# Entry
Amino acid sequence: MLIGAAVVLFIASFLGISGCDLPGNACDAFDSPFSWEVSPLGWGSFLLGIAGAALVVVSRALPQQQQRKVAGLELGQLGVAFTVAAAWTLLMWVFESSSAGAGLILGLIASLALAGAAIAGPLVPALQAPLLSAPRPQTPQPYGMQAGQAGPAGQFGQQGAPGGYGYPGAQQQPYGAQPDPSLGGGQQPFGGQGPAQGQAPAQAQPQGQAAPAHGQAPAADFAPFWFAVPVARPLYGEDGSPAPIAELAPGTWYLAVEQRGQALVAQTQDGRRGVLQDTTGIQRG
# Structure
């Protein structure tokens, strides 16, 4: 609807802006100017509305982390302001004109539809999704390990070995799901350990000392990873406050920097950190 209204507004800019109420055949010789022959109307109304539509479309085409700001405003917000200003100035031209032509009337209708579509965009969930998907982040590597270098079996971030994280042939498992044995080991569930891990240290401990529970990795074994949420989920402060500090949106990659039980400490693109309590169904990058 937004693009269609902008096209109609562009067509209306080449139609006559003045009508003719003269008696007889006098109107046959009347040549009505169009908007581009009247600079304040063409450049201040029609072009302003078309530019606003272009800014809104570009804003919706970019992922959230690639949004740009002009004078503190996002491109979409600036585009909405342009479309509203164009509709207002065209309304004033129609009121001030003694005989409005087809260009003014059609331009006013198109500018009102354009402003309405631009304003309703952030309010309609179906129109909030970006037209381009977010770029896939680079897989974080363990400290001191190069990309493609084989590391210890089951180590997070291993590249080049079948079954390791990031291996192209391995199917990604949902967060908390069990790996498929047919994939040659596959990706281990988040917080779990591969076979034979955590058992050898337990045998070397004295008999009077309890061994760590099998399947529980110590906090030192956690490595940051990228993830995306399937639906919008709140991010709460690390101080335990009940009010969310941000909202994680689907289609955007976030960095998990710490694990707290079943929850994750996530970092947003603007540097804010908080606790994601609901980690079901997240997709690891």
Q: What stands out?
A: Residues 227 and 254 are 5 Å apart (CA to CA). Residues 133-140+221-285 form a domain with the SH3 type barrels. fold (CATH 2.30.30).
